[in-house]
Amino acid sequence: MSHENDKKARQKPSQTAWEWMKSIAVALLIWFVLRALLIQAFRIPSPSMENTLLIGDFLFVNKALYGAEIPIVKKRLPAIRDPQRFDVVVFRSPETEGMNVVKRIIGMPGDTISMKDNLIYLNGIPLEEPHAIKTDSAMNPADPRMRAWQVRYLIGADPKDYRPTLKNWGPVVVPPDSFFVMGDNRDNSYDSRYWGYLGRDRIDGRPLFIYYSFDKNSMLPLPFLTSIRWSRIFSTPD
């Protein structure tokens, strides 16, 4: 026993440092694999998904569900399943490099989708949306960005007379490998209505659960405790 203790005492500092470096390297490798292929942390920065997701919600995102993209080689692992209608998805912004966004899938590939008086019609049938909230009935602006992309997919209407607004547009057809996504806070969401379809290749994953939630606007005393939305922790966004 004393021989082993003497051996450890004589161990060179360089050997100890090397063991620490190997341990750190293994830990970093495990973290990289988890971060790249399985789980991603995400914070909700805007009110576009209220009341499903709130500003100050912190999520873990399941990247394996739709097939995680392998860094550098840009290849995807096999998906557990494909995205489905009403899935809440986290994706890379089609407009801003490096920005992640969260919305809900409304239109699937091949769907004909339109909106009349703030009501979604899917393949000609009104769509029930229990998750959607509509807070401003008077707001219905026209936006040239909507017309710029929608006229290419427009059916059953004359493109020359087409003047879409936030709550009246379409019908348009969703192309293959693409989705039409919208925020649950329907009157306060910058989504597919403005910038177009979301490509399948941009979808990273689906929220797994909320691991922390903080209301920065809370006026209660002891905010480090009372501003935490305890009831939301470990809840699953649907």
SSE string, helices as H and strands as E: HHEEEEEEEEEHEEHEEH
CATH architecture: Ribbon
Secondary-structure-based class equals alpha+beta
Average pLDDT works out at 87
N- and C-termini, Cα separation: 60 Å
Q: How would you write the strand order of the largest sheet?
A: 1-2-13-5-6-11-12
CATH class: Mainly Beta
Task: Describe the structure concisely.
With about 240 residues, the chain is α+β, with helices and mostly antiparallel strands. It has helices spanning about 1-10, 15-40, 145-150, 190-195, 225; strands at about 40-45, 55-60, 70, 75, 90, 100-105, 110-115, 120, 125, 170-175, 180, 200, 205-215.
Topology:
Elements: H1 2-9, H2 13-38, E1 39-43, E2 57-62, E3 69-70, E4 75-76, E5 88-92, E6 100-107, E7 112-116, E8 119-122, E9 125-126, H3 144-150, E10 169-173, E11 178-182, H4 192-195, E12 198-199, E13 203-213, H5 223-226
Q: Overview of this structure, please?
A:
The chain is α+β, with helices and mostly antiparallel strands and 238 residues long. The chain has a single domain, classed as Ribbon (Umud Fragment, subunit A). It is built from 5 helices and 13 strands. The protein has a 7-stranded antiparallel beta sheet with strand order 1-2-13-5-6-11-12. The longest helix has 26 residues. It starts with a helix and ends in a 12-residue tail after the last helix. The model has no long low-confidence stretch (mean pLDDT 87).
